[in-house]
Amino acid sequence: MDPLATDSPGDQTAMTDEAWQSVLRAVDQTYSELVAHQERLEDQNAELSAAKRLIESVMASVSDILIVIDRDGTVAEASASLRGLVGGEAGAVIGQPATGVFDTAGAELLAAALGRLRLHHAVTHFEASIPTETGAQPFDIALSPRIDARDRFAGAVLSGRPLGELRRAYAELELSHEQLKQAQSQIVRNEKLASLGRLLAGVAHELNNPISFVYASVHALEKYVGQFETYFQQVQSGAPREDLVRLRNDLKLERALGNLSTAIHGAREGAERVRDIVADLRRLSSEGSGERVAFDLAETARVGARWVERGSKTGVAVTFSGEEALRVCGVPGHVQQIVMNLVQNAIDAVDGVPDPAVRIDLDRAAGMARLTVSDNGPGIPEAQRAAVFDPFFTTKPVGKGTGLGLSISAKIADEHGGQLSLLPGPGAVFLLELPLAHEPGES
Ligand SMILES: Nc1ncnc2c1ncn2[C@@H]1O[C@H](COP(=O)(O)OP(=O)(O)O)[C@@H](O)[C@H]1O
Ligand SMILES: [Mg+2]
């Protein structure tokens, strides 16, 4: 017997089993690898779908326009807002050159920006318009590079904010700014009107005296004229001398003659007083013209204080000490407004105080003129010292104070290169410093 023939069936069977088993093992392994692959693929697929949904939802909901641009400059993704603008089918812009979305000028800008982006990878901004059915719409464009894992340029992301909206927001901002400015100047006007009101009260009071003086004198003159007329009529009609003497005595013409010059003198004095007041006022109004000149602060302070005194019903008189004359440089009308504000505040503060006193002291130090207004009122509580210069800060009842006097005064002082400050008490002490005028001949 062929040993092989006898052995082979058994051997063959054994070998075949082994081969089958290894084949089966290989199949098993391959199968389980396939299953693992399949699972991984499914996971990745799910991740991809989630990412895709996220991108789609972003693209659908951004209100600015958003375009993802490929390396070759074509549109890979576009936000729904862009598609809505260009009016095409969903996806009509996808695969088209991104420059095609914009008008000619915008396309050129985008092409240039993409070129720069390839080289420098830096974000660029420019303005470009997209033609739409309702006309070209301007956008503020930001173009950022997309960089791949190997740090190479992979395309760009373009976002555009409608400029119409920005411009509208800007216009609204501008409008409210304008309204604010108007409100502010209205308030400043009110404060000016309040000072003017005080000034006018003083003027009215001041004019009243000389005018009634003039009026009384004229009234007396009228009476005397009537008497002299009667007398001269008698003279002309050739009345006898004795009659004339009697008439002169009856009419008290001698005394009338004496009184006549007193009345004329009174009328002239009253008229001159009125003339002086008008001159004062005229100077004040011309000094409000805003021109800078050298002027005497002491004189301006005296005039200003006088007007406030006259306008107030308290009868408090301001006393002066220190320099008799102090020449400073500035707008006299504006500086006078500061003095009037400070004096008015001081007079308000001493209302009801026993022995009320308001003092103005003038001196000079380190190239500055110093004017101090102090009073023996209650002073300013520690907690309010920082606030008194704030606009609208007032402790006075509505209609009495605007809270603007000190803030405007401080601003004027500042504009003059000086300052207004609050010094320690007792009472309230405000210090106004202004640069001294350089007199001709001074070095
Ligand atoms: N001489 C003063 N004595 C006491 N308080 C003062 C004096 N001057 C100013 N103040 C305080 O500062 C506030 C602001 O003054 P101001 O700006 O002139 O506005 P207003 O006089 O309209 O109140 C006043 O309301 C008052 O409380
Ligand atoms: Mg005031």
From TrEMBL:
Reaction(s) catalysed (UniProt annotation): ATP + protein L-histidine = ADP + protein N-phospho-L-histidine
Origin: domain of life: Bacteria
EC numbers, comma separated: 2.7.13.3
Keywords for this protein: Coiled coil, Phosphoprotein
Coiled-coil regions listed in the entry: 27-61
One Pfam family per UniProt: HATPase_c
Keyword Manganese: no
Residue span, Histidine kinase domain: 202-438
Ranges of residues in domain PAS: 51-96
Any one GO MF annotation of this record: phosphorelay sensor kinase activity
UniProt keyword annotation of Chloroplast present: no
The protein's name in its UniProt record: histidine kinase
